[in-house]
Amino acid sequence: EHVVVSKICQQIGAIASTSCNLSQHDICTEASACRTLFGPHLDYIETHSVSGSGEASRIIDLSTQEILRA
Fold first, then answer.
1. Is 60 helix (H, G, I), strand (E, B) or coil?
2. Which residues are within 8 A (CB) of 52 and not within 5 positions of it... i.e. 6 or more apart?
3. Taking the CB of the first residue and of the last residue of the chain, which one, N or C, has fewer CB atoms within 10 A?
4. Distance CA 37, CA 25 (A)
5. If you compute the radius of gyration of the chain from its CA atoms, what whole number of angstroms results?
6. For the chain, where are the alpha helices, taking DSSP H only?
7. How far is CA 12 from CA 3, 20, 21, in A?
8. What is the pLDDT of residue 1?
9. SS3 of 61, please?
10. pLDDT tens string 19-70
11. According to the model, what pLDDT value does residue 20 have?
């Protein structure tokens, strides 16, 4: 379904990703907004439709249980 992402995974392995947003802010729904926020820190933005909850994700350090992003 996502040809480019599938090819990347075949080359480097599994990819883990989160929603594109800063902590306590709404998620970005357009690639241009992601580029504005994270520009040089991004290697690739998938611009085709991907499934997801449509809500910001929480990031937890499983070794300490610290919430890194709410």
1. strand
2. 19
3. N
4. 11
5. 13
6. 3-12, 31-38
7. 14, 21, 24
8. 62
9. strand
10. 788 878 888 888 888 899 888 888 888 777 666 666 777 778 888 888 887 7
11. 81
